[in-house]
Design brief:
CATH class of the largest domain: Alpha Beta
Strand order of the largest sheet: 7-6-8-5-9
CATH architecture of the largest domain: 2-Layer Sandwich
Number of strands: 14
Distance between the termini: 61 Å
Helix content: 25-40%
Number of helices: 9
CATH topology of the largest domain: Methyltransferase, Cobalt-precorrin-4 Transmethylase, Domain 2
Length: about 300
């Protein structure tokens, strides 16, 4: 009697007989193989691997996470050590770069607030040029490459140039930095949703207030007065808790908390500076007391 054919996990981790056994299975119009309308089947190599065989120039965008080098994913760390060239951001973690093999070429394209020494178009071309030279290139970015990291533009540039490209996501500071100090961005009874916005843009204040829940602002220190004033003018309660979290996961974390109608003055007195994550909403009041107690003293407890 023939032994039963072993099953394998599907795209969501369930065990089954494969995509063809599912009632909704069909033929993918591009890759020709069976796929389930409720799942995704990839014909190419895993996104956690290099997108092309060895010897072919290629690019992988890797999210380094925020601050602590231990927050990079296992896949991201492995690809980093296998790279020929690493194109790194300012917030991508110097500790990760120090541990690289000596053969790896590191190119610093870091940007500071108000100072972008290497334009994005030049960064895009660097990735393409090094890949075309046959190199395995890691584009190391702080946090997650696709959350205000311009990762989409870099992927598009590689695709347009015919360069194999993949993305390994990272832990985003929008959620991880609040978590470090005990702030859950969603919490039953306080916040059923979370909105993440860039502080570089002028948002729709009325829409943000109407959405409710938690508002997380990245890169918002410079425009904090305009942001808060706009929210208050469009109905944000003056007593809404706000927390500004500086230098998350670096050992130099600092928490500044105040009501919405007092946070700008408090931030000015404390000389708050980037990088920082701003949390607006009831959950901001949940920052651990040990962190708030040390806020006036300097670095947070480990």
């Amino acid at each position: 009697m023939q032994a039963p054919r072993p099953t394998s996990p599907d795209a969501e981790g369930r065990c089954g007989a494969g995509a063809a056994a599912h009632p909704g299975a069909a033929t993918h119009p591009e890759i020709g193989g069976p796929f389930d309308a409720g799942a995704t089947t990839h014909a190419r190599r895993s996104s956690l691997e290099w997108p092309a065989p060895a010897g072919v120039g290629q690019v992988v965008l890797v999210g380094a996470g925020p601050g602590d080098p231990g927050l990079i994913t296992v896949a991201g760390q492995r690809l980093l050590t296998e790279a020929d060239v690493v194109v790194a951001d300012r917030l991508a973690g110097t500790a990760l770069l120090r541990d690289l093999p000596a053969r790896v070429q590191v190119i610093d394209v870091g940007k500071c607030p108000g100072n972008h020494p290497v334009p994005q178009e030049v960064i895009n071309q660097l990735l393409v040029d090094h890949a075309r030279a046959g190199h395995r290139v890691v584009r190391l970015k702080g946090g997650d490459p696709f959350l205000f990291g311009r990762g989409g533009e870099e992927v598009a540039a590689c695709r347009e140039a015919g360069v194999p490209v993949a993305v390994v996501p990272g832990v985003t500071s929008a959620f991880a930095v609040p978590a470090e100090v005990g702030i859950p961005v969603t919490h039953r009874g306080l916040a059923r949703g979370v909105t993440v916005v860039s502080g570089h843009e002028d948002p729709d204040h009325e829409a943000l207030v109407r959405l409710g829940g938690t508002l997380v602002v990245l890169m918002g220190v410079t425009r904090l007065p305009q942001l808060v004033d706009g929210l208050l003018q469009h109905g944000l309660a003056p007593g809404t808790p706000v927390a500004i979290l500086e230098s998350g996961w670096t050992g130099l974390s600092r928490v500044t908390r105040a009501r919405a109608d007092e946070i700008v003055g408090t931030a000015e007195r404390r000389e708050v500076h980037a990088p920082a994550v701003i949390v607006i909403g009831e959950v901001a009041a949940l920052a651990e007391e040990r962190m708030a107690a040390r806020a006036e003293e300097g670095p947070a407890l480990p």
